[in-house]
Amino acid sequence: MARVALHTLGCKLNFTETATLARQLVEAGHTVTDWEAPAEVYVLNTCTVTHQAERKAHKLLRQVRRRAPEALIVVTGCYAQLRPERLSEEEGVALVATNAQKPFLAQAIGTLLAGHVPEVPKATDGWRFWPSASSEGRTRAFLKVQDGCDYKCSFCTVPQARGPSRSAPPEIIRQEAQRLAEAGFKEIVLTGINLGDYGKPHGIPFLTLLQRLEAEVPRSVVRFRLSSIEPNLLSDAILDFIAEHPRWAPHFHLPLQSGSDKILGRMRRRYRRKLYEERISAIRKRFPLAGIGVDVIVGFPGETPADFEETRRFIADLPVSYLHVFPYSERPGTLATTFSESVPWPERLLRSEALRELSQRKRWAFAQACYGHTFSVLVEQDQEGLLENYLRVRVKKPCSPGEVFSICLGEEAEPTAEWAPLPEPEGV
Description:
Elements lengths: L2 E6 L3 H16 L3 E3 L7 E6 L4 H17 L4 E6 H5 L1 H5 L4 E4 L8 H9 L19 E4 L3 E5 L1 E2 L10 H5 L3 E2 L2 H13 L4 E5 L14 H11 L6 E4 L9 H9 L6 E7 L3 H7 L5 H14 L4 E8 L6 H13 L4 E6 L17 H26 L3 E8 L2 E4 L4 E4 L8 E5 L4 E3 L13
Parallel strand pairs: 1-2, 1-3, 3-4, 4-5, 7-10, 10-11, 12-13, 13-14
Antiparallel strand pairs: 6-7, 8-9, 15-16, 15-18, 16-17, 17-19
Helix pairs in contact: 7-8
């Protein structure tokens, strides 16, 4: 038996899979420890969404090799799926396992420790769904219900890294949610690569899954939340269901990527500005104080200053709560790398900064709009908690993690610093 250190880069889905691997390793008799602690095995779960994520993976691997030269190093995740040869070149890497091989990693690590070369199924043996869940502290859990993507966005490697869209059977999801409820988690966040595409190959619509969870999961789980969902898949029926069932949080994260129809077309997105604006309006009609998050990519090939300004103005006029902003990053093997009119990196960074400032103004305006209203807070740590609309607050009265109660924002709680206004420029 060995000490195994785990580290995760990338999305919530990667975190759920790392957590599941950790449980399997403990069940096999190993001890799971922190990445910085001494260990016999180090497992890095990688990301490849940007070139920065890939560089960070190499940096972490070299740090481990210097710190623990005799340890076994195992690499998995999306970077391992797409470019395993680059990771195999790193000194000390004993095994590179693709995403398709993740479900077999615990057994493979045992084989490595026994001094043998593990035989794990190849990616060509077919993709399978690996039910996974992770947690943030002791109060919130992330439950993977869907994996893979059938979309063909011109900038994205996810279909190659994660395979085709596929889903867990509803009964497996119910069992995992039951386990999380019994473990004491108060909130469950449903997550996936393309969450709204849930149903393949089981033929059960996403809305039916939500209805079954509402009916079958114990009331000790006081809140369900959706992670990111494509705007074209967020139907009125789903919004109506959430509006009619208080356990479902009025918080929606909808990728936009660009506010220019020209750029959305080049990105091969499945919607245009009009549909996106209609979805935001549909949310606000039902949930005036819902939290709404937006993903945006700036500096996509062919994005002129006028195109960027169109995006900035479009978002500025939308009643959304916060942005996640990414400068476009060339991904080998994607259609976008063949496009001309590349935007220089300094310009991409300037555009990113402009939208991040807009995001902070949106956050402050959203927090201000919530003052004087009553919400439900789930306390997580140090008197900090999360409201149903994703606003994070500091509670004024003494409280403990796991408590859930009503507060009036401004009287009994205040938004945390991330929702504060931008500082005034020097000299003002």
